[in-house]
Design brief:
This protein is α/β, with parallel strands linked by helices. It is built from seven helices and seven strands. 43% of the residues lie in helices and 15% in strands. Helix 1 (18-29) packs across helix 7 and helix 4 (106-130) runs parallel beside helix 5 (152-172).
Length: 248
């Protein structure tokens, strides 16, 4: 990711692993100071912070349980105090667990709602309050374009975050841009292997799985194109074009 940066400090939630890690590294390569959020993955966060610092970048760790609203409210203030030049928020952290519609899915609904939607909602509001200008990028899921799923709590929370992306883009313009990225089959769930990606790729238009570089390239595009707001980029090999499918 090369080119002019919006500014030089970014908060990336869930940044110690997977897509969040790739985004944090790519932003550091662009010259951003990184506020690296984690919850339970402290060791991975320490390793990533060391890697960023070894490259000459600045990186600070911020531990926060996004399921606790009081902690979420303090997170943005802590980051802004350390990095007053903060101008980018990447809402990447989320949980992904199976759940069904009905009373058996209520606990899962609450958990997904708190972490996948309410925490980004609070962080976005605090970002708007503390930062006069900037950019928010919400990491969504290609399945927000569909309705059939075995992950009801997850899908509902991501659909709401997609709608928040558009509402906030209108509300916070012209000083803060808000966009979303909806990845498709980029990384297999932690409990599945590469065969899962290979099998699923056969059913999408481009018939191949993606790579985290496609997500970081999309982040770069959104940063560089200052005339884009309220957009959701589907980085999914065309999967969103297929209509309702099973999230598995």
């Amino acid at each position: 990711m090369n080119g002019k940066t919006l500014s030089n400090a970014a908060l990336v939630t869930g940044a110690s692993q997977r897509i969040g890690k790739a985004i944090a590294l790519a932003l550091a390569d662009r010259g951003f100071d990184i506020a690296l959020h984690y919850n339970k993955s402290k060791q991975e966060a320490l390793v990533l912070a060391a890697e960023i610092k070894q490259k000459g970048g600045a990186c600070e760790l911020f531990s926060c349980d996004l399921g606790k609203e009081s902690a979420v409210l303090r997170l943005l203030e802590s980051v802004h105090k350390r990095f007053p030049q903060l101008s980018l928020l990447v809402n990447n952290a989320s949980i992904f667990e199976p759940s069904q519609l009905g009373r058996d899915g209520l606990q899962a609904l609450d958990e997904h709602w708190q972490i996948n939607f309410r925490a980004p909602y609070v962080l976005l509001g605090e970002f708007a309050r503390l930062c006069s200008r900037g950019h928010v990028i919400n990491i969504l899921d290609t399945k927000v374009s569909q309705n059939k799923t075995d992950y009801v709590g997850y899908l509902l929370s991501k659909k709401c975050l997609a709608e928040l992306t558009k509402i906030a883009a209108l509300k916070l313009a012209p000083t803060i841009r808000v966009n979303g990225i909806s990845p498709g089959i980029i990384l297999a769930p932690s409990h599945k292997g590469q065969d899962y990606l290979t099998k699923r790729a056969r059913d999408i238009p481009l018939q191949r799985s993606g790579d985290v570089k496609f997500i970081t390239q999309s982040v770069g595009f959104l940063l560089d194109n200052e005339f884009v707001t309220g957009q959701i980029l589907f980085v999914d090999g065309g999967e969103h074009l297929l209509g309702s499918g099973v999230l598995s």
